[in-house]
Amino acid sequence: MVDKLTLNMITQRSIEEGVAMEKGKTTQEYFEACSIIEMNEEDIRKLGLLPNQLVKVTSECGSVIVKAIKGRQTVYPGLGHIPQGVWANQIVPPRTQATGEPQYSGFPATVESARGERRKSALECVQGAVGLWRSD
Amino acid sequence: MPKKIENVGCPYCGVCCDDLVVTVSDDGRHVLEVENACAIGNEIFHHASGDNRIKLPRLRQPDGTYKDISYDEAVDYAAKVLVKAKKPLIYGFGSTNCEGMAAAAKVAEKAGAVLDNCASICHGSSFLAIFDNGYPSCTLGETKNRADVIVYWGSNPAHAHPRHMSRYSIFPRGFFTGKGHKGRKIIVIDPRYTDTARVADIYVQVKQGQDYDLFNAFRTVIHGEDIPDEVAGVKKEQILEVADILKKARFGTIFYGMGLCHSDGRNHNVDIAISMTRDLNDFTKWTIMAMRGHYNIAGPGVVWAWTTGYPYCIDMSKKDHAYMNPGETSSIDLAMRDEVDAFFNIGTDAGAHFPIEAVKHLKKHPWITIDPNICMASEIADLHIPVGIVGVEVPGIVYRMDNVPIQYRQVLNPPEGVISDEELFERIHQRICEIEAEEGITQTGAAAADTQKSIVGE
């Protein structure tokens, strides 16, 4: 068992994200669809995580708390997937290899258990980042 | 009496399904039923008639709250921001019609803005590769009627384009493909075992970020040369097996997605995919197509290419010529270098879909969001202007992922008083002209622009 694991991160669309996004990005559905990380079972075991435990994912430009799940669409050991959306973009590096496209797929991020922390809502993530968030 | 409207286009993804049947209430205000749409398209139509629509522009107050203002006030505010800014960025357009895009291009030229669309963070790499290497493509109809081998590479239509497989690629029976999916071979190449991979005949698990290597291996084999025992995590036997299927196809189409454009290599991944397609045409007929995301994200590429000469990342800040250089004039790079001093977000959600670092940079300056719905971009904006939903409340032309134009319909009336993107941009353009006349603006750039032939063709 290890405390921290470095994964190769990717972020892509999921249909749950698509449906929830059209319903509204402030809905519970969007929160549940996007504030997750899909990991290989082997990696979940290595970190000693319980099913649906919260983890802190940290990249070169920030960190985010998400729920670790195995997911239906499986990834191989060493690869992690956060669905496209607000939570993924808290850690996506904005470097573009001179093409205009950020590094949405293929950036290193460490994953560790996030005991005692909570997932932020979409609004708290984005408004918080630009100084507009006021807790309700 | 509820009204049934047939052949309605769906304003979600680049497949642009145009076979929806929408039943609306007799007052034309509510969608009662949507037939043929996927789960996401269905949600769009039902959401439109929800009670939580924004009906008036909202201006951010000093205490951080929003206050409703009139459209006239919003147009005035937007025009003044554009006149004052040295280099505003107008970005988005994945979810609006071509009429709105043309009107926005006029505003961008007038204001000396950078005009960019969602391709900038999506299939922009494809544009770069296509400029370099050509685009041996086809229409979706040709794939449906002719293709007996389909490759999905770094693309997951089961989630991102839910009806792509049933309408055009795997399942439909076409003119020369009467056996439907029984007569087709499906190859899915992806690092994840996706839901699309589940319906494939062959699933190739490529190591993330090593697509270029795998393309190279395929090209080597297709040219009759030998390769190592394993490339990009894929065994030589499987590469040989797939290459053989590709060469023996009667007609094939490679559909590729963000797996190529968002990973290391970007445009080079697409470049070599096009080269492989060209190689395969020495043996049989192969085509390649980008899986465009939004229903009209191909639109700005087409509309602006014929109005300004470039499809995206168009810098018109000098006012007398347009200039494009992704990496320099692309939205994310401009934001990260703090090179723009006002941001317009239209028909997209930069708040949710830009890396948060870029959002923080853009938010240092006035941020105006033009969108029918509440989204992250609207909730951090200084001004949010609601507009009618294209494809539901506003008709118009959209370009499908294969660049085929489709006329979208209106099925509902927009909420009272809510205007279209096109009307909004026309009014902002008008207001900028008025302000410049009032203030007698005689900056060299602006004066030069008046005597020059305009960049944006009418």
TrEMBL record, chain A:
In its UniProt entry, the species of origin is given as Methanoculleus taiwanensis
The GO terms describing molecular function are: molybdopterin cofactor binding; oxidoreductase activity
Entry-linked InterPro entries? Asp_de-COase-like_dom_sf, MoPterin_dinucl-bd_dom
Q: Which SUPFAM superfamilies match?
A: ADC-like
Query: What is the protein's given name?
Result: Molybdopterin dinucleotide-binding protein
Coiled-coil spans in chain: none
Q: Which residue range or ranges hold the Molybdopterin dinucleotide-binding domain?
A: 8-106
From TrEMBL, chain B:
A single GO BP term for this record reads: methanogenesis
Is 4Fe-4S given among the entry's keywords?
no
The residues the entry assigns to the signal sequence are none
Any keyword Ligase? no
Q: Which UniProt keywords apply?
A: Oxidoreductase
> What GO cellular component entries does it have?
membrane
The molecular function terms of the Gene Ontology recorded here are:
formylmethanofuran dehydrogenase activity; NADH dehydrogenase activity
* Recorded superkingdom: Archaea
- Domain named Molybdopterin oxidoreductase is located at 53-230
Could you tell me which PANTHER family the record lists for this protein?
FORMATE DEHYDROGENASE H (PTHR43105:SF14), RESPIRATORY NITRATE REDUCTASE (PTHR43105)
In terms of NCBIfam families, this protein maps to: one_C_dehyd_B
Q: What is this protein called?
A: Formylmethanofuran dehydrogenase
